[in-house]
């Protein structure tokens, strides 16, 4: 089973990737920017993709069976016009 984890460069996403990684695992760490080579365990594939780039998302998710959605769209939760579901981040 091929598993992709969004927000893999973040604290929680990185932990999820490390927990899933192993000799029998097929894990894709999805990040917005290319991380340092040592950021993830050996065997973890890194896919650079942004939610605003549908082509990059399609490429990153090709062949993925399961998506672990750990990230959010932080850009939507800034400024005075932030939607109510952003909670405490609203207006920042």
UniProtKB/TrEMBL annotation:
PANTHER family, per database record: NMRA-LIKE DOMAIN-CONTAINING PROTEIN, QUINONE OXIDOREDUCTASE 2
Domain NAD(P)-binding: from-to ranges: 7-75
InterPro entries given in the database record: NAD(P)-bd_dom, NAD(P)-bd_dom_sf, NmrA-type_oxidoreductase
Top-rank lineage group of the source organism: Bacteria
Name of the protein in its database record: NAD(P)H-binding protein
Pfam families named in the record: NAD_binding_10
């Amino acid at each position: 089973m091929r598993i992709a984890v969004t927000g893999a460069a973040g604290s929680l996403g990185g932990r999820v990737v490390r927990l899933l990684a192993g000799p029998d695992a097929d894990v894709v760490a999805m990040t917005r920017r290319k991380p340092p080579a040592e950021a993830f365990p050996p065997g973890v594939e890194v896919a650079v993709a942004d939610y605003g780039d549908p082509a990059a998302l399609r490429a990153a998710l090709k062949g993925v069976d399961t998506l672990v959605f750990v990230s959010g769209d932080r850009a939507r939760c800034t400024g005075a016009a932030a939607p109510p579901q952003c909670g405490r981040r609203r207006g920042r």
